């Protein structure tokens, strides 16, 4: 009898592990985001199916180049996530177009909720990501037109236009709302700001005139 109980416990443990490891599945055809609903879940509440239209699954605009001239970093990101396509709600996927001026960059940042897969449509990019502590290894590569690169979920990564002309990339992300945490902005542009002595100690830099001049690193 004891052996049967032990076998049952092992089978239950295996089933639980499998359930935890598997991806969540949709329980219906779609859940178009109802942005007017006061209900807030992990995502958006579903619009009534009778009110769903083709436009809920459509976006037009990725054929247009982003305005890189208005960015300090010389890049422009055109996002296509649940904010632009309500039908992406619960689908676990989104995409972006990124335009880069010569020497423009998408500065070091992370996506806390998504892995990213990027392909170069035009130009050449130097891309890379940094592994987590304690090694902090830089994994970098020069990409040309048609090349593909993957940035693992949550890791700091970047893209830099190392060519002489403009560059364009298209990226897919494994979340309807991947989020973006830009490294420089979170450190030096938080509201309220992080105390200067904490930043100085963290980055091992000195303070001048009673403060840190970090405005040049913000985007």
UniProtKB/TrEMBL annotation:
Cystine pairings recorded for this chain: 31-46
Signal sequence annotation: 1-21
Subcellular localization: Secreted, Extracellular space, Apoplast
Keyword NADP: no
Pfam families: Cupin_1
SUPFAM superfamilies, alphabetized: RmlC-like cupins
Keywords: Apoplast, Disulfide bond, Manganese, Metal-binding, Secreted, Signal
Binding-site residues, Mn(2+): 109, 111, 116, 157
Protein residues bound to oxalate: 106, 111, 116
Organism superkingdom: Eukaryota
GO cellular component term, pick one: apoplast
Molecular function in Gene Ontology: manganese ion binding
Domain Cupin type-1 as annotated: residue spans: 60-211
PANTHER family xref list: GERMIN-LIKE PROTEIN SUBFAMILY 3 MEMBER 3
Family: Belongs to the germin family.
Protein name per Swiss-Prot or TrEMBL: Germin-like protein
Origin species: Sorghum bicolor (Sorghum)
């Amino acid at each position: 009898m004891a052996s049967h109980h032990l076998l049952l416990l092992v089978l239950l443990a295996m089933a639980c592990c499998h359930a935890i490891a598997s991806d969540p599945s949709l329980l219906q055809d779609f859940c178009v985001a109802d942005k007017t609903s006061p209900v807030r879940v992990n995502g958006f509440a579903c619009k009534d199916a009778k009110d769903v239209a083709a436009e809920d699954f459509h976006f037009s605009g990725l054929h247009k180049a982003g305005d890189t001239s208005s960015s300090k970093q010389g890049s422009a990101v055109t996002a296509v996530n649940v904010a632009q396509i309500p039908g992406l709600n619960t689908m676990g996927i989104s995409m972006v177009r990124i335009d880069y001026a010569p020497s423009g960059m998408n500065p070091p940042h992370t996506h806390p909720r998504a892995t990213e897969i990027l392909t170069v449509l035009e130009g050449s990019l130097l891309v890379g990501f940094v592994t987590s502590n304690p090694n902090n290894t830089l994994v970098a590569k020069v990409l040309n037109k048609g090349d593909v690169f993957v940035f693992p979920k949550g890791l700091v990564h970047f893209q830099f236009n190392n060519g002489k002309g403009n560059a364009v990339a298209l990226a897919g992300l494994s979340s309807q709302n991947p989020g973006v945490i830009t490294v420089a902005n979170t450190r030096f542009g938080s509201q309220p700001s992080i105390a200067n002595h904490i930043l100085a100690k963290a980055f091992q830099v000195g303070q001048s005139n009673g403060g840190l001049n970090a405005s040049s690193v913000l985007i």
